[in-house]
Design a protein that fits this description.
Blueprint lengths: L4 E6 L5 H12 L2 E4 H14 L3 E2 L2 E2 L1 H7 L5 E6 L4 E6 L2 E2 L7 H11 L2 H14 L5 E5 L2 H5 L5 E6 L2 H14 L6 H17 L12 E4 L5 H18 L1
Parallel strand pairs: 1-8, 1-9, 2-8, 9-10
Antiparallel strand pairs: 3-4, 5-6, 6-7
The structure holds cytidine-5'-diphosphate.
């Protein structure tokens, strides 16, 4: 069966990973969470003392880059796809606020991006990948057969993220969450290296007023139409 690559880009917390995960599962593709890789590098920088409060020593991180092994794999123990830093499963830790508050600073660094983009392109070489992020349709997989640009209103995104964090027992306020989203969106959109922007040939999916199930059905139709046409 002919396989394609699917790129999903968009703002923070607009449901990219939910859609990408569900879609990959339904159509038997591999899900690649590119944001998790930047989060893993951020955790490495925090643990190694490269941050003083919220300020990053970029030089130290760039020098240490070759020591960082980031991978995405199925963990038998937790029975879920997880992010690994060297051999440690760091999936839970990278979703917490301290990493969210610092990740966009790490993701602006050219050397970090070059390394992550290389790894992401390797993962998609054999096709059959659903990858979500900020620069997938524009930089990582510009040849992806289907590109989706997701968006939703900031209030809705913040509420969804707050619910997700509350579900994991993390105590954060709505204000903290929305400020973090807006701050990350701003850095992501205005950075020099691979800023977040919609690829010319991407389809826009605003999911402010549709359910997860509805968005999944919509995208499955797009995939089917594409596969039937080739
Ligand atoms: O929290 P959310 O799911 O929105 O973000 P994420 O996908 O986990 O990505 C975390 C951060 O990594 C983003 O805010 C971006 O700064 C950065 N990122 C990036 O620069 N390029 C990507 N392809 C993916 C993420």
């Amino acid at each position: 069966m002919h396989k394609i690559n699917i790129a999903i880009d968009g703002y923070s917390s607009c449901g990219k990973s939910t859609l990408a995960k569900q879609l990959a599962k339904e159509i038997g593709y591999i899900y690649v969470d590119s944001g998790a890789m930047y989060r893993a590098v951020t955790l490495f920088a925090m643990r190694n003392g490269f941050f003083t409060d919220l300020v990053l020593d970029e030089k130290q991180l760039i020098e240490a880059l070759s020591q960082i092994e980031v991978s995405l794999a199925y963990d038998q123990e937790t029975e879920s796809q997880s992010t690994f830093l060297n051999t440690e499963n760091i999936e839970e830790e990278i979703r917490k606020m301290p990493v969210s508050q610092r990740v966009s600073q790490v993701a602006v660094i050219k050397e970090v991006r070059e390394r992550m983009v290389y790894l992401q392109q390797q993962m998609a070489k054999s096709k059959g990948v659903v990858m979500d992020g900020r620069d997938i349709g524009t930089v990582v997989l510009p040849e992806a057969e289907l590109k989706i640009f997701m968006t939703a209103s900031p209030d809705i995104r913040a509420q969804r993220r707050l619910d997700e964090l509350a579900g994991k027992g993390e105590k954060v306020s709505y204000k903290e969450v929305i400020e973090n989203l807006k701050h990350r969106d701003h850095i992501d959109e205005t950075r020099e290296e691979s800023p977040l922007c919609q690829a010319e040939d991407a389809r826009v999916l605003d999911n402010s007023n549709i359910t997860r199930e509805q968005q999944l059905e919509m995208v499955k139709v797009w995939v089917d139409v594409f596969l039937l046409s080739c």
